């Protein structure tokens, strides 16, 4: 079983980007941890700074019926286009777990709302790289 682990803008900078907020691990480190913790799954980890590319990956997940772990990064807070893409996962009954490294609710006001959460199966935020691991664990268990 393949799981798409999709990451939005600036997440390719993890490791050097505000480590006190986002942790010292790089996205590659997170991917390696996920692979180690779920060896029977294929973790297809991707990152883009481009909204159109991220939307095209969600379309791919809908068409291939692949569960998605999504850190939409700043798109969380304003991308109705990404939400409309994610709504198609919900329509198709494909699991979508929204993840955040930080807990956005403890931060600036603009981070307190997510336009994605309303179409996500669930949301995990505030546990650093562990947020991803928890999301993958849940998907794995829900697949049975
Ligand atoms: C983030 C939180 C967002 O507010 C921010 O724009 C990010 C990362 C997180 O993982 O904590 O880029 O999604």
UniProtKB/TrEMBL annotation:
What does the sequence similarity comment in the record state about its family?
A: Belongs to the type-II 3-dehydroquinase family.
In its UniProt entry, the species of origin is given as Agromyces intestinalis
The record's annotation in InterPro entries points to: DHquinase_II (IPR001874), DHquinase_II_CS (IPR018509), DHquinase_II_sf (IPR036441)
Which PANTHER family does the UniProt record give?
Answer: CATABOLIC 3-DEHYDROQUINASE
Q: Which reaction does it catalyse?
A: 3-dehydroquinate = 3-dehydroshikimate + H2O
What pathway annotation does it carry? Metabolic intermediate biosynthesis; chorismate biosynthesis; chorismate from D-erythrose 4-phosphate and phosphoenolpyruvate: step 3/7
Coiled-coil blocks: none
Summarize the subunit comment: Homododecamer.
The residues that the entry says bind substrate are 71, 77, 84, 101-102, 111
Q: Where is the active site?
A: 22 (proton acceptor), 100 (proton donor)
- Its Enzyme Commission number? 4.2.1.10
Q: Name it.
A: 3-dehydroquinate dehydratase
- Chain's gene name: aroQ
Checking CDD domains in the record gives: DHQase_II
* Site positions (Transition state stabilizer): 17
